[in-house]
Amino acid sequence: MATTIPFNKPLFLGTELAAVASAVQSSSSLAGRGDFTTYCEQRLSAQLNGARVFLTTSGTAALEISAMLCDLAPGDEVIAPSYTFVSTVNAFVLRGATIVFVDVEAGTMTLDPSKIEAAISPRTRAIVPVQYAGIACSDMDAIMALAAEHGLLVIEDAAQALACSYHTRPVGSFGHMACFSFHATKNMTAGGQGGAIAINDPTLLARAEIVYDYGTNRSAFFRHEVPRYEWIDIGSNFCLPEPQAAFLWAQLQAIDLVSARRRQLWNVYHSALLPLHEAGVLTLPPVREGTVHAGHLFFFFVHTALQRRELVRWMKEASVEVSAHYVPLHSAPLGKTRGRFVGEDVVTTKGSETLVRLPMFYELEDDEQNIVIEKLKEFYADAERLEQQSR
């Protein structure tokens, strides 16, 4: 039986073990906030043009901090795409917000900036652009200008977009805040789970530190800036344990190498499938000038949901794991009660039903990728079957 080419494998470079051992031996900071945490936060800050970065236990936790900093009241509204992971919106629903879903752009499945203004109401407090698959939203400048005009906060969900840029500026440096994930499925991992929140707006920094510190002034107390260590705001325990920070630090030192390899794999897929795109049998994501993607996911669109089911089956029989992705949140049971879709759903549902993701991970070998491409081309070589599945 042929060995299956998996959809994903967590990144493991081999340098992580020594770093984790060092963290474990430093018992004074085992719970976090030790040297490795500092190294990671400083490296990420440099990556993000000087933002203040806090490591967190997950990307979800980072989003929950951002929602607390929005100071939401029940009935306040947050604009977001429906095509995203549930953590994007759960963080704000937990604070009492209503989610206002808007459509995404064809080809990238990222938030469509032209749909945002119609969704803004007197209760709108924030916009959450999701940099899906490590591809920047098409016009972050327009999103930030619109937010400034209406006095709104922008939280970039950059969970998949570390080392991605828009017009030479790193994704995650545009919004007032940005959230990253170091889950095992991401380009870099903190040993399975992990995240970070970047604070780009200095007016939010003092409160961010308090929220991160269980809602206390602990950090200010240890800096001898206040006489007492007190509970003064909402907050929680978001601190990443030091062994996980060490695991992440070992990987962050190779971020350029890992990012380059993932982009290379992405570009090989794109070039190999371009003739099929030009023939109209599938649709590839666009390659935009002025942006650098993170090489996180490689996806394309088939014609119908039926064709996707057949393609997934075909590839499974060829020992290749391919995958669909999100079900739109506005169609989910809680999405129907805690949110609403504004404008026409032209792309979101159709895209969610026809999007296919291919194997993409740092250790994917060239010959494995060639097998994936070969099996895809074999699937598309049967014109009669394709015609039936496209109806």
Kindly state the mean pLDDT as a whole number?
A: 96
Name the beta content range: 5-15%
How many beta-strand runs? 13
N- to C-terminal distance = 34 Å
**What share of residues is helical?**
25-40%
How many DSSP H or I helices?
14
Overall shape: globular
**Helix/strand/pairing category:** alpha/beta
Structure report:
This protein is α/β, with parallel strands linked by helices and 391 residues long. The protein is built from 14 helices and 13 strands. The protein has an 8-stranded mixed sheet, with helices on both faces. A 3-stranded antiparallel sheet has the order 7-6-10, with no helix packed on it. Helix 4 links the parallel strand 2 and strand 3.
SSE blueprint:
Elements (H helix, E strand, L loop, with lengths): L15 H10 L9 H13 L4 E5 L2 H11 L7 E5 L5 H7 L4 E5 L21 E4 L12 H11 L2 E5 L7 E2 L2 E2 L6 E5 L13 E5 L5 H8 L5 H5 L19 H11 L2 H24 L12 E2 L5 E4 L3 H13 L15 H6 E3 L6 H7 E4 L7 H15 L2 H7 L2
Parallel strand pairs: 2-3, 2-4, 3-12, 4-5, 5-8
Antiparallel strand pairs: 1-9, 6-7, 6-10, 8-9, 11-13
Helix pairs in contact: 1-8, 2-8, 3-4, 3-6, 9-13
Key structural traits:
3-stranded antiparallel beta sheet; 391 residues; 8-stranded mixed beta sheet; single chain; alpha/beta; 38% helix; globular
